[in-house]
Amino acid sequence: MKLKLIVNGAAGRMGKRILAIAIDSGNFDIFAAADAQNHSDLGKDAGLLAGIYELGVKLTDTFPVGADVMIDFTLPIAADATIEYCVKNKVALVMGTTGLSAEQMKKVDEAAKIIPVIQTTNFSVGMNLLFKVVGQVAAALGPDYDIEITEAHHRFKKDSPSGSALSLAESIAKSADMDYPACLVHGREGRDCLREKGTIGMHAIRAGDIVGQHSVIYGTLGETITISHNAHSRDTFALGAVRAAKWLADKKPGKYSMADVLGL
Fold it and tell me: In the CATH hierarchy, which fold is given to the domain comprising 3-119+234-262?
């Protein structure tokens, strides 16, 4: 039996690919495709907007009752309504929206007491492997290695640094016993910018249509180690989100991670 899926942010770049990949997987019926109240494509067929075929599902600004799971890739301003709907209607939530406030993160945690939730900064399988290993590498190398993180995204990305870069830093700080987020140094400028021991440098690039590039540099006198991940298309994130939705739909209430989905 197919799962009833709501895609929120369905008219966006990620939402369109999630729709196409969810349909292609054969595991879902598109129960609803939603986007912002003032979106110019409201009322249009979601399948045609996604560049596949006519689904008979119109883009809407409301969530119908009866869904099994929602995948949400929108903006922080829409997150509260998403969380409230899912909690009220007992709908499993896969949330890929980044830039959430501390208060919204608390709402996600509260929601996870009632419904199953996966909220993460990156659904790429490869990036989630990086989240796990970068801290292990930092701990093994020790405090003599300087750590710098660079991230590059397209010119339209609003939040900086990326949520994924922050997740990398948090994993490193936890494993290397650093005070996160106080250990972060965002860029450098001026005549007196010597690197301070025990810090993580964070650098953001915004250019063109870069999908997503993240690198962690470990450097000491004599050698440099770099661990990198390059996303070639949004499909890598959409594939991970769809995989997460299938895995999450029948789980008990709780806050899960992509590491749980992947068995890491």
Answer: Rossmann fold (3.40.50)
Residue-wise pLDDT for 164-189, tens only, equals 999 999 999 999 999 999 999 999 99
CATH number attached to the domain at 125-231: 3.30.360.10
Q: Per the confidence metrics, is the pTM higher than 0.90?
A: no
Q: If you average pLDDT over residues 79-88, what whole number do you get?
A: 96
Would you list the DSSP string of the chain? --EEEEEETTTSHHHHHHHHHHHHHTSEEEEEEE--TT-TTTTSBHHHHTTS---S-BEESS--S--SEEEE-S-HHHHHHHHHHHHHHT-EEEE------HHHHHHHHHHTTTSEEEE-S---HHHHHHHHHHHHHHHHH-TTSEEEEEEEE-TT--SSS-HHHHHHHHHHHHHHT--TTTTEEE---SS--PPPTT-EEEEEEE-TT--EEEEEEEEETTEEEEEEEEE-STHHHHHHHHHHHHHHTTPPSEEE-HHHHHT-
Q: What is the pLDDT of residues 127-150, one digit of tens each?
A: 999 999 999 999 999 999 999 999
* Enzyme catalytic residues: 153, 157
